[in-house]
Design goal:
The chain is an alpha+beta fold. It has two domains: 94 residues, Ribosomal Protein S8, Chain: A, domain 1 (2-Layer Sandwich), CATH 3.30.1370; 97 residues, no CATH class. Helices cover 48% and strands 12% of the residues.
Length: 200
Amino acid sequence: MIEKCLIIETDKPLQFFGAKHKNFELIQQLLPHVKLIARGNEIKIQGDVIEVEQSEKKLLTLVQFFNDRLEISEQHIISILTNSSETQKIDSFSDLIITHNSDGKPIKALSPNQKKLVELSEQNDMVFVTGPAGSGKTYTAIALAVRALKNRVIKRIVLSRPAVEAGENLGYLPGNLKEKLDPYLQPLYDALLDLLPKKN
């Protein structure tokens, strides 16, 4: 027996599980060969290896559908988990979503180059990006890092920035090392604040 865990990107899991867990009970009925456990915004899948892997694929599509729209109906659940043609429509739509910001708004790749960055990041461990200011390089990269953190692909995000910009020397800038580096790191901080849930 194995166990796998899926994350639902919302601070209101009731929207996914349904009132009195009505949606969750339907999901369990449609996946009878595995045991599902709902805790907070997580779903744990327990069972035999093959059954868990098959159920995980269906649930990934279901969770992605909800993450993209922040809503789901019984008909959507039935269509997705019974492998109807609706699944293919959902998959093609979901490809456009990177993650969600702190308010639940979906963050999408808005240009061909941003879409290319998303695709390349899924195929490579490291991607170098160049381009003019304001083209979305930093924000898209931070969004991809936040998505990986939420999905537990990584355990932490490490911010890195060149210590010396072209024609400059940090030793001649006023302040301590943190004060010298903050202006270069501020765009990364801003993106993280927009994308990560705010503390109450």
